[in-house]
Design brief:
11 strands, Immunoglobulin-like, alpha+beta, about 190 residues, eleven-stranded antiparallel beta sheet, about 20% helix
């Protein structure tokens, strides 16, 4: 298994702070996203390219290289046992032309995953295994990533399930409304 670190947490945090009031209309506009910039984020400030349904399209710079990504947060997040605290979670689909990466699906779950555990993503009847490291998850079989993106473009909802290092079970539901447009916009920006 090759680790694919993707975008820096700092770049994602900056994007999340830019426009989540418009991305998650189901949430009160007074909600504040508290995301600390990760060390090594370099203070990168992404540019919002557009908001499409529940997704935002962004471009930015990570390590001196151009990146583009679509970003959203769950429309519903549940824990078992109920009401366990956790940081905000995000799903993003990134493109990094300099690394020849297109539409890499990643999740920041808002807690440290249970070591050596997997997360799962369900899109309609399609299921995908995600490998985990710290608070991130990536598709286990990179050859399935294109099939995953196609399923995401055709579906209305995606469900992510995982287990924290403390044994808390989580289920996050993401709306896929606007994802196709956000991906089209990032593809246009990061050719």
């Amino acid at each position: 298994m090759t680790l694919r670190p993707g975008l820096s947490h700092g770049l994602i945090a900056a994007a999340a702070m830019l426009s989540f009031s418009s991305l998650a209309q189901a949430q009160p506009s007074s909600e504040r996203i508290r995301v600390a910039q990760a060390p090594g984020g370099g203070g990168a400030q992404p540019t919002l390219l557009g908001t499409y349904g529940d997704w935002g399209a962004y471009s930015g710079n990570s390590g001196g290289r151009k990146v583009c990504f679509a970003l959203s947060k769950p429309t519903k997040a549940e824990t078992e046992p109920p009401n366990r605290p956790r940081d905000p979670s995000y799903m993003f689909v990134s493109t990094r032309p300099a690394e020849n990466v297109r539409n890499e699906v990643s999740i920041i779950i808002g807690y440290g995953f249970k070591p050596s555990s997997e997360a799962s993503v369900e899109i309609g009847s399609a299921k995908f295994s995600m490998y985990t490291q710290n608070d991130g998850a990536w598709i286990k079989n990179a050859a399935e990533e294109q099939r995953m993106i196609e399923a995401m473009r055709k579906s209305g909802e995606l469900v992510v399930k995982g287990t924290s290092a403390r044994g808390t079970q989580t289920t996050d539901r993401y709306s896929l409304k606007g994802l196709g447009q956000a991906l089209d916009r990032t593809a246009q920006e990061c050719k």
